[in-house]
Specification:
Structural class: alpha/beta
Protein name: Ribose-5-phosphate isomerase
Radius of gyration: 15 Å
Strand order of the largest sheet: 2-1-3-5-4
Distance between the termini: 40 Å
Helix content: 40-55%
Bound molecules: 5-O-phosphono-beta-D-ribofuranose
Number of helices: 7
Active site: 65, 98
Shape: globular
Order of helices and strands: EHHEHEHEHEHH
CATH class: Alpha Beta
CATH topology: Ribose 5-phosphate Isomerase B, Chain: A
Family: Belongs to the LacAB/RpiB family.
Oligomer: single chain
Number of strands: 5
GO molecular function, one term: ribose-5-phosphate isomerase activity
Strand content: 15-25%
CATH architecture: 3-Layer(aba) Sandwich
Keywords: Isomerase
Length: 156
């Protein structure tokens, strides 16, 4: 599974500190930036990470910002993306199993170096459930994207 990584300046150091972990675990990652602690805007990075996932070159993405919140808000603006802030292991796997989350967002100022590896492991190992209610709900999320986009178009 190929993983798209991204961070803003607040998440940069945690992201980089995890590169040996990804290598040790045999996970193939692409880092879509940022590449230093110089301030950047998380929406710009979110677009790059999410494009990798949306276009299918990467199965899932992981984003790091200060709280994870900004990254999640930005990612959830992008059709086909379901992003969640995960700071506990249960949410990190259940968000995939139930909600087919494809971008996990982590607050680098919130979690420590041990927990973050467990979060990533839980997120990457999880698979979307084949049970009908979960599929139906995710389909409804997709329909919502279309419905609101159509409304905007019709206004224009
Ligand atoms: O470095 P500053 O701009 O203070 O804070 C940026 C962080 O604040 C939140 O929007 C995000 O979590 C982002 O990482």
């Amino acid at each position: 599974m190929k993983i798209a990584l991204g961070s803003d300046h607040c998440g940069y150091e945690l992201k980089v500190s995890l590169l040996p972990y990804f290598e040790r675990m045999g996970y193939e990652v692409s880092d879509f930036g940022c590449h230093s602690t110089e301030p950047v805007d998380f929406p710009d990075i979110a677009q790059q990470v999410c494009d990798g996932v949306r276009k299918g070159s990467h199965k899932r993405g992981i984003m790091f910002c200060g709280t994870g919140v900004g990254a999640a808000i930005a990612a959830n603006k992008i059709p086909g993306i379901r992003a969640a802030v995960c700071h506990d292991v249960h949410s990190a796997h259940q968000c995939v199993e139930h909600d087919d989350v494809n971008i996990m967002c982590i607050g680098a100022k919130i979690v420590g170096p041990w927990l973050v590896e467990d979060l990533i492991q839980a997120f990457i190992s999880a698979t979307f459930s084949s049970e009908k209610p979960f599929r139906r709900r995710v389909k409804k999320l997709h329909e919502m994207e279309i419905q609101y986009a159509m409304e905007l178009m019709n206004k224009g």
